[in-house]
Amino acid sequence: MAAHLKKRVYEEFSKVVQQHPHEEAPAKKLRLTKPSKSAALHIDLCKASTPTDALQYLLQFARKPVEAESVEGVVRILLEHYYKETDSSVRLKIASLLGLLSKTQGFLPDCIVDDVISTLNNEKSHQVLAQLLETLLVIGTQLPENTSLRHRLVEVACKHLTDTYFGVRNKCLQLLGCLGSVDKPLAKESEGVAAGTAPRDVQSIISDYFDDQDPRVRTAAIKAMLQLHERGIKLHQTIYSQACKLLCDDYEQVRSVAVQMVWVLSQLYSESIVPIPSSSEEIRLVDDSFGKISHMVSDGSWVVRVQAAKLLGSMHQVSPHFLEQTLDKKLMSDLRRKRTAHERAKELYTSGEFSSGRKWADDAPKERVDTTAVNLIDSGACGAFVHGLEDEMYEVRIAAVEALCALAQSSSSFAEKCLDFLVDMFNDEIEEVRLQSIHVLRQISTHITLREDQLDTVLAVLEDSSRDIREALHELLCCTNVSTKECIQLALLELLKNLTKYPTDRNSIWKCLKFLGARHPTLVLPIVPELLSTHPYFDTPEPDMDDPAYIAVLVLVFNAAKSCPTMSALFSDHTFRHYAYLRDSLSHLVPQLRLPCGKLSGVSESSGPASSLESAQQFLQDSLSRVCTVQHLEAPGAQDLLEFTIRDLQRLGELQTELAGAADFCATYLRCQLLLMKALQEKLWNVAVPLYLKQNAMASAAVKQILEETYKLEFLYSGLETRQVAIIHHVRLQAKALQLVLTARTRRGVEPLLGICEKFLQEVDAFQRLFITELPHFQDSFVEKLLDLMPRLIACKPLDLVKILQTTLRQSGFLHLKLPEQIHRASATIIEPTGESDNPLRFTSGLVVALDIDATLEHVQDPQTWVKVQVLYPDGQSHVIHPRPGDFRKPGPGRHRLITQVYLSHSAWTEPCQIEVRLLLAYSSSASRVPAPKTPAWNESTEGLPSSESSTEGTIPFSKPVKVFIMPKPARR
């Protein structure tokens, strides 16, 4: 029976299939997804038996990234557990996680706003309420374009403003500051505003909490108002009086933000007129706020004093009268404006009352003055900077010095008045204050002229043991004007004392005297005979040209003589010879002078045309244009053209220092092309591999050199644009293709080539992604042909790929190099050690000796990271030292100074030997100048992403080596 039933069912099913042969069961589609975070979290939270366990699971979950597509499911699980949870600490953590998840890129958090608001209305814990408001703030800032949502969140904040917990009120005020606007008025529901009551503005609601009983809420209210200002909403002037009252608050943080509020309103309504309390007079708001902020320089908190002093420096619209009051400690009579004698006599005459002298104090004022209630502008501004410069905290003194500088730069009269105060700061006990005051005086040096007594105080700093202080003072003297010739003599005398005491300051002192002489030619002229020790009748002995002090005097005199043609008549014969010597040896310090004929026999004075730079630039462009024809020439002629052009560019860089960077860059690029051309010559590729092993070795060496040169081009030069970086990477790609071809010719088997070919194709793809905008400029180039053949290259075998690369390399065209506006080559000059001493540094073997390094760096980007010191010993050992970040100074734009110590150690030697010290510029291909890809967010995992190329690291020598004698002695037993 069962068999008969089975047979009948099968027949019926066969009929159905025959009647509907085209109707097939739909295939199930499989979708590969990552394990759901929400499911894992749900399982963990279900396993939690106590609030402590749940908190642990939540903490573990917070350390893991979450994908954007899983965020909504995770949020639902968290909310579901939130409703069931009775422990407030767990609810607090869930509320915090909701805010973090709302920041996930690709997730729109507006779908959870209703749930968060509903939990907010039912929550009893104040801490959890504050955290939920923080979550709403995060959601609101993530959706700034959603006006309705923003207004809804602001209304929620207004509703909870009357909460008894300060944290809730703080978050509500923060919400109003970050999301509130003036386009839609609000009704304050929390105060039970009746129907028909006029709606209130966000600013008026926030300002109500300026008088809150909790100082933390008062601080949050002012910060919320400042947040409105930062968002571009203009604050009401009526807030000014409330902010001024908060300047006298008992709490430091309230006074700190109140000072900021007063300053903001002074910038918005600087010309508005406000009344002076306890007086019938009126004043500009910026002057009134200046006085109030000046008064805060004497605040009990040093943090407030620093902030007030800094803000004073940015109030450039204040009246000169009030500005000058900051340097005067004299207070007015009874803190009120003193009336003139004419005004007092006129008042007595009109009243008909004069003192008879019969009654005691019959001329006393009729009104009683409460001095604590009277606070005019002068009582606040009087001596504000004097108090700031004499403050016990050095941070306040530095802030006062910087504020003085900012105000003095916009007012010459104020600069002259504050000069004495700044000069007095040169004697401060803190080195940082002294250094800052020197820098400040240099910035305002165009407005001032130093008197002899002031210069005496300034020059006393040359005795300072700090090298930074002394060199900063040399920079100050470079751009300072002095008043008399005695000042020049005094400065020269003190600088020569400095040179005797600190010989390492030699270059800085010579540079200082160069500018000092160029600025004061008429003051140097009367003292030239005294400086050069010349006599109108008697012949004086010739000074020693090896004396640094005599060179310093000559630098001063020759730079003054450039603007004073009559000075050369006071020179003796040996002075002209010394000029010729210094002009050749120290051309950067000694200018070209127009001297009488016959005085300089055998000295060639070059007087090139003013347009030499333009002609050099034109020569550079012509050379690059001429090289573009190299692809139309035969191999020998093309190589000769490249060699001649490289030689010309190298010579151009030596003659024209302004174009040295561009010329060296072009010469290095053409050298890469020349090496590539020689490696691809015909005879290398038309002969069997075993017969041309020597040429293969030559080509491999050329490839290695090209790769080194491309890293120099990319990391040693600054000012490059994206096109130049793309051309450098293109040359590097050609070199790597040639390296792949040579590897295939010398290695046997296909297996080793698979990984190399795959890596090369990844680099081609990376080039396309990084320089997609520059590809139109790469017509008929190697990379353009590769990209056209890319589908074929991916599918072909390694040996076929090698043949295609070999053909494409030989057929690719020459890329024209277009230079940007300015290219600078990174360079370094080691000042100390000089390498001239024959006295070896002696030390016991196995111990260490410190070698002082002083070097100047030009056009080096981020030297703290990439500059290293290399020490090469005679036995071939090499040590690379990374200087500390604090060893670098930045005296000017594009320039850095390295002052550090290198510790040397070695085993015993039989005789003194020389070590080499040089500076290296480190580089890493991972820190390339290619536009960096977007950084992944915290929830985006970067595991498994293929890297475009392995990180290549190396160093480039960019200074001449200096040789130093050292002698490790054997230890005594």
UniProtKB/TrEMBL annotation:
Coiled coil stretches, renumbered: none
Location(s), subcellular: Cytoplasm; Nucleus
Region called Disordered, residue ranges: 929-956
GO cellular component: cytoplasm; integrator complex
Every INTS4 8 helical bundle domain range: 617-820
Source organism of this protein record: Anguilla anguilla
Family: Belongs to the Integrator subunit 4 family.
Chief location bin: cytoplasm
Organism ancestry: Eukaryota, Metazoa, Chordata, Craniata, Vertebrata
Name of the protein described by the UniProt record: Integrator complex subunit 4
